[in-house]
Amino acid sequence: MPRPLRLEAEGAIYHVIARGNERKLIFRDDDDRREYLDRLIRCRERFGLGVLAYCLMGNHLHLAVERGATKLSRVMLALQSAYTQWFNRRHDRVGHLFQGRYKAFVIEKDRYLLALVRYIHRNPVEAGLARRPQDYPWSSDRYYRRGQAPEWLDVDDVLPLLGQSRRVAVARYRRLMGGEVEETYESLKAYAQAIKGDDRQEADGGKGRCRRGRRPGRTVGGSGKRKPAEGFLARPTDRGVSRSCRGRDSCFSDGEVLRQGGVNLCSGRAQTRGEADERSTSAQVRRPVGGRPPKIIQEVHG
Predict the structure, then answer these.
(1) What secondary structure letter does DSSP report for 285?
(2) Which of 11, 17, 230, 302 could form a disulfide with 103 if both were Cys (CB 3.0 to 4.6 A apart)?
(3) Are residues 186 and 62 in contact, defined by beta-carbon separation less than 8 angstroms?
């Protein structure tokens, strides 16, 4: 069976899923979970990874992350390998801990990020491990409900999508987690086991306009280190591609983010950095013909 495609682009948002080999436990107790989170934090600092949400179950885990300058495949190799070695030493075992390679879905549109966070935080409820999301201690849900999080958890990259003030955003988040929604993350289409969502542009004539700028929390000075966001709605500068948008219907798709990072989903070839810079910010992702998924051109087997 061929490996699934791996899309790699700086600034892309991924839903990462890793499962235990033979459906066995990857976390036997809370000390295991603490160790995994500690290693995830180290990867954030080392590789400029954005950690947006997480949920550590028993035999699998979910992460919502934003890729920095280092390829996600490299980050996950460092994270999973180091944790596996530590786990095997602690529990006096040998062999694989995780079931094959992790899954990583690019979230096609910014508006789907909220659906992903909701899905991750409700995972323990759906699995019967908790009555409410806030009752499960090993997810990032409680930080969103407080509107405050440790420095390594980038809640300020997500909450502004719900409101322009922290109080309003937290209130809307709580309603989002407790109520019914029209479009759930589970209902989104998956293309080539690599993209979640659809390829349509948002409203406003399909132009997908969005504020451009360097997003708070992006890596700084090319070092790969990640700088904490300063303030809830820190104003972006004129560098990079912003993922924080003023409204639901005025966002870039992640297809545009991929193109800005040098990955073209439609032309059938990779772009050079110069070609990417010359592209208009209103470039559109082409609708697939006959319902087929967009053509994906960058495959990584890292």
Answers:
(1) P
(2) 17
(3) no
Q: Tell me the pLDDT tens digit for each residue of 244-259.
A: 333 333 333 444 444 4
Residue closest to 279 by CA, chosen among 250, 295, 256: 256
Q: Where does residue 276 rank: exposed (0-12), middle (13-18), buried (19+ CB within 10 A)?
A: middle
Burial class (CB in 10 A: 0-12, 13-18, 19+), 88: middle
Is the full-model pTM beyond 0.70? no
Strands of 143-203, DSSP E:
190-191, 195-196
Token pair listed for 50: 């954005």
The DSSP-derived string for 21-76 is: GGG--S-SSHHHHHHHHHHHHHHHHHH--EEEEEEE-SSEEEEEEE--SS-HHHHH
Phi, psi of 281, rounded to the nearest 5 degrees: -70, -10
Torsion of CA 55, 61, 64, 68, to 10 degrees: 130
At how many degrees (to 10) do helices 30-47 and 72-91 cross? 150
∠ CA 261-75-65, nearest 5°, is 65
* pLDDT tier at 186, thresholds 50, 70, 90: low
Identify the structural domains of the chain with CATH numbers, from first to last: 13-185 (3.30.70.1290)
